[in-house]
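User: Need the bound-state model for iron/sulfur cluster:
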Amino acid sequence: MTDLLVNEVFESIQGEGAFTGVPSIFVRLQGCPVGCPWCDTKHTWDVHEDRLRAADVIMRQNEDSEDYFKADTKALFSLFQQHGYAARHLVLTGGEPCMYDLRALTEMAIEKGFSVQIETSGTFEILCHDKTWVTLSPKINMKGGYKILPSAVLRANEIKHAIAMEKHIQELDDLISSVQLKRLPMIYLQPISMQKRATELAVKTCIARNWRLSLQTHKFIGVE
Ligand code: SF4
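Assistant: Bound-state model below.
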């Protein structure tokens, strides 16, 4: 069984996109080479062997850290139980979770009656159970030089795009038209860092295109 490198596990409320407001268990995986300048989880980018810790040490940490623990699927579910998590929605995030083969984890979660969501940049092949909800947050032309895979656009149940200026809308249009979609997935625009101009642009575009607005609502209510 493949081990996952886990930066943190916590229970909270999903603050963004289609599952906004849904109580969720978040599993944040370590590692991401994509290099978005505004990334708010830069501590998940690198995997340093000397930052490997025991799971209970990570579970006691309250701050962002490059530390991580190793766990297989079974160990993760035992951890959820041990911590008394009640949420029935599992969010796999990162870092870039699709650097890992997520089939075993998503299969077990669905078997146990969870709904499962992956939040991915679309730069790695998405390996998961068919019933997994895939949130593609395409990171276009970032420093790491990774391309968005057409298979990720085709697999997406929702596209949640971070924007600050018109060129980001154009990039999204180009990405969508680069594949033959039978049906457009739900599209959410999310203003980067909730800046005023970005928010105005997102609102205006959502109204004009009949898209949806995604706000980082967890930041308004002060939860992780
Ligand atoms: S893909 Fe996500 S984790 Fe990776 S750099 Fe971009 S925002 Fe950060």
